[in-house]
């Protein structure tokens, strides 16, 4: 359930590009005008605005924006304005350059995108950074995570992940037994376990995890989280949750990102920018159920200025819309 709101009558890309140019190039950047346009256009409309802006004014809109905005607001606007594949490539590139085993950005990309999305990412990565995505992953990932992340992220392997709704009960039974055996034995890197997680469809994994519950007596996440102090097992648990319960996963990312102890702008920006056109409505509902205030209220309390206004607009709480 997306939270992006687009007006019934959208101006032409030429009109939007002109309005943005005036907002950026005039005396004092008109941030409200930038929000009123970009926060209320879908990815195809934003792409067309960028094309028209480049053709008309001789510069990529992203470069024009990069010169004028405050840091957190700028990062959100730029990340949001990128095409999804460009955005994923940028996030993956940054995550690999700052590689930390506890960072979940690559897990999020691997487990909430389709195989086609990952193929698009691969192409953008090559064009944008002049390096193979697969080679960069292999180069930077360390430890046991080399067992999990490359097969999750490699488009040629993930292409085996069927995206339809067909479910095979006999296969689910076999896979549930496989998962239960290896998790019980703490053989978390076993190739058969990895194969199930990396190649089965989301529709197929759901009954598999139900059957796992019958075998174990515990949900698969509970069994994995029992060993969550192990960085690899924590990543495996995050992958399972992202694949089947993404709204629950992203709620857990947002909960510590907006609290009285401080804001994790990086996590907040990433989740809002990547999920607003996908399922941020469900993520917001999950947040509202598990916390004493709504997501919009938490964001309003924890942020300020144009960064706050852009976030609230993308969450679906723009008072001017």
UniProtKB/TrEMBL annotation:
GO molecular function, one term: calcium-dependent phospholipid binding
Amino-acid positions noted as binding Ca(2+) 3 in the UniProt annotation, renumbered to this chain: 303
GO terms, biological process: response to cold; response to heat; response to salt stress; response to water deprivation
TM regions (residue ranges): none
Entries under SMART domains matching the protein: ANX
A GO cellular-component term linked to this record: cytoplasm
Binding site for Ca(2+) 1: 26, 28, 68, 260, 262, 300, 302
PROSITE patterns: ANNEXIN_1 (PS00223), ANNEXIN_2 (PS51897)
Keywords: Annexin, Calcium, Calcium/phospholipid-binding, Metal-binding, Repeat
Domain of life: Eukaryota
Keyword Membrane: no
Keyword field contains tRNA-binding: no
Recorded family membership: Belongs to the annexin family.
Entry remark concerning the domains of this protein: A pair of annexin repeats may form one binding site for calcium and phospholipid.
Protein name stated in the entry: Annexin
């Amino acid at each position: 359930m997306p939270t992006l709101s687009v007006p019934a009558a959208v101006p032409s890309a030429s009109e939007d590009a002109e309005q943005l140019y005036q907002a950026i190039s005039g005396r004092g950047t008109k941030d409200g005008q930038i929000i009123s346009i970009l926060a209320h256009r879908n990815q195809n409309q934003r792409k067309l605005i960028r094309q028209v802006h480049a053709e008309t004014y001789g510069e990529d809109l992203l470069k024009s924006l990069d010169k004028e905005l405050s840091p957190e607001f700028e990062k959100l606007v730029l990340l949001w304005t990128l095409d999804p594949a460009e955005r994923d490539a940028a996030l993956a590139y940054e995550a690999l350059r700052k590689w930390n085993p506890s960072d979940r950005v690559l897990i999020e990309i691997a487990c909430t995108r389709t195989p086609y999305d990952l193929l698009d990412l691969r192409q953008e990565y090559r064009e944008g950074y002049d390096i193979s995505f697969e080679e960069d992953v292999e180069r930077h990932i360390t430890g046991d995570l080399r067992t999990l992340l490359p097969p999750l992220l490699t488009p040629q392997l993930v292409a085996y992940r069927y995206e339809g709704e067909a479910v095979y009960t006999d296969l689910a039974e076999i896979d549930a037994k496989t998962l239960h055996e290896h998790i019980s034995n703490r053989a978390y890197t076993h190739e058969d376990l990895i194969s199930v997680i990396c190649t089965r469809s989301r529709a197929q994994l759901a009954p598999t995890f139900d059957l796992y519950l019958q075998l174990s007596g515990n949900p698969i996440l509970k069994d994995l989280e029992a060993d969550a102090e192990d960085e690899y097992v924590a990543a495996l648990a995050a992958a399972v949750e992202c694949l089947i319960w993404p709204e629950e996963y992203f709620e857990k990312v947002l909960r510590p990102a907006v609290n009285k102890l401080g804001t994790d702008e990086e996590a907040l920006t990433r989740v809002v920018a990547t999920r607003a056109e996908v399922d941020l409505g469900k993520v917001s509902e999950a947040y509202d159920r598990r916390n004493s205030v709504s997501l919009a209220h938490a964001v309003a309390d924890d942020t300020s200025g144009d960064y706050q206004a852009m976030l609230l607009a993308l969450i679906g709480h723009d008072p001017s819309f």
